[in-house]
Task: structure prediction
Amino acid sequence: MTTLGFPTSPYTGQTYIVGNTTYVWNGSAWVKYSGLTQSTSTVSISNTTSSTSTNSGALVVNGGIGVGGSINVSSTSTINGAVILTTATVTLQLATHNGSTTTDAVKFTNTTASTSTTTGAVVISGGVGIHGDVYVGGTIVVEHIDIAEATMDSTYTEVSTMLPTVIDQYPTNIYRSAKYLVQIDEGTGDTADFEVIELLVLVTNTGTAIATDYGLLTNNGELGSFSTMVDGSDPLNPLLKLYFTPYASTNKTITVLRTAVTK
Result:
């Protein structure tokens, strides 16, 4: 056989042509390849040898394969290193592990409404990076917004005493100043009282808070006073605290919108 140029280390299924005759290595010897004839019968291979490469397995085909119908695979398939998952084993987790990017548009037709950060047609536990524009057809409810060197946040507090109450706080090692819009609701119906006021707060490098209020609007007089202080009980995370002290122990709701600017 060596004088005819047969490969010295053939793999199972390898073919070699001598003249007009094709030989195939069956694992132990070169045998004449008789070819296949077309048949309408089902061909079943009961050999269960697993495939770990292009030249191993129960069936090895050295050339290409043309298939006119469907192909059903009961396990994961690999084509040129790319993993092809069958419908029996496909999950989003497996799919993204084998390629989580696409140049195609992705559309979610689920219409589940969102009423919190854990509900809706799409729920994302981590952050989201968006390079282009965002268009929203409905209401946007955001708990916290970072805008370059600034941030926007809000709080809601219920008060029913005349004691000073913290209605907002932020870390002074991150933000230098803040602007507040505070709305206070007291009572119900025609006798309800309201107040809206703006405040500016500045924190120095020595931990001193400087504040001023302006733009006051009420329908029946002020409902309380405001004060600020820097709480340095945690030296690694000092906090600017905004206090509200009511003038009466009636039930009040206080909504705060804060815009803060970084150092």
Remarks:
- DSSP finds one helix and 14 strands in the chain.
